[in-house]
Amino acid sequence: MKLAADGVTDLRAVTPAHITAHVAALRGGDSEHSPLSAASAARAASAVRGLHRFAVREGLVEDDASRDVRPPVPPRRLPKALDVSEVERLLAAVDDGDTLGLRDRALLEFLYGTGARISEAVGAAIDDLDREEGTALLRGKGGKTRLVPVGGYACEALDAYLVRARPELIKKSTPVVFLNARGGPLSRQSAWAILRRAALHAGLPVEGPRAVSPHTLRHSYATHLLDGGADVRVVQELLGHASVTTTQVYTLVTVERLREVYVTAHPRALS
């Protein structure tokens, strides 16, 4: 929107309506400009607000005309999650016929079976695992800890690794569960490389918007729990989120999935 075309040549004459119309014009585009995304329009609106705050601070205007104008809200990004069959392909892609394969399988099963962050998995200690009870103590952000159940498949993979592989890897005493080929603690970067290698073998994307990443199994864990009927507050506790608001983004994923099923299955979903 050009203020001069509206007869506005002085910053003091700018009103909230002018700024709102300007933001709307950015989103709608015109014959000279393509429409901006919500994120780009929000950045432009932020620049306008910065100008008006500066003008008030410098005494150029009395009131901030942009104060009550809300910028566009970018669409909330949904977490990337694999479906159950893709997770099974990923886990099956690991050849656990040797020492490192047993470790890799245990790591990926642990990530999906507990919803652990990659840093929580590589930081896990032997004493954090209760193999009889099938639980793990995860040490999360800010020093917070949480006790989570470990799935049956993950328990089996961990037992195989701890009994048959870890003793061969360990060179000196260390409490860390997952070790590298030199016997030291596995790094986050190495854990990511393990995941990427398994994804490649499984034929899953490792580039682009659907790329399998260190957080993918955590996202999949949460999504599959909610798809299976788990309460969002239970999932919040399992993920270690301080606020249920953070967890609720996963409910958007399940709603999208329900919508897809509805559109494909209901005879009158589409006109």
Automatic annotation (TrEMBL):
Belongs to the 'phage' integrase family. XerC subfamily. Forms a cyclic heterotetrameric complex composed of two molecules of XerC and two molecules of XerD. Residues 77-263 form the Tyr recombinase domain. It is found in: Cytoplasm. InterPro entries: CB (IPR044068), DNA_brk_join_enz (IPR011010), Integrase-like_cat_sf (IPR013762), Integrase_catalytic (IPR002104), Integrase_recombinase_N (IPR010998), Integrase_SAM-like_N (IPR004107), Tyrosine_recombinase_XerC/XerD (IPR023009), Tyrosine_recombinase_XerCD (IPR050090). It comes from Phytohabitans aurantiacus. Residues 1-56 form the Core-binding (CB) domain. The keyword Transcription does not apply. The active site is at 117, 141, 215, 218, 241, 250 (o-(3'-phospho-dna)-tyrosine intermediate). Keywords: Cell cycle, Cell division, Chromosome partition, Cytoplasm, DNA integration, DNA recombination, DNA-binding. It comes from the Bacteria. The keyword Cell division applies. It holds the Pfam family Phage_int_SAM_1. Site-specific tyrosine recombinase, which acts by catalyzing the cutting and rejoining of the recombining DNA molecules. The XerC-XerD complex is essential to convert dimers of the bacterial chromosome into monomers to permit their segregation at cell division. It also contributes to the segregational stability of plasmids. Its main location: cytoplasm. This is Tyrosine recombinase XerC.
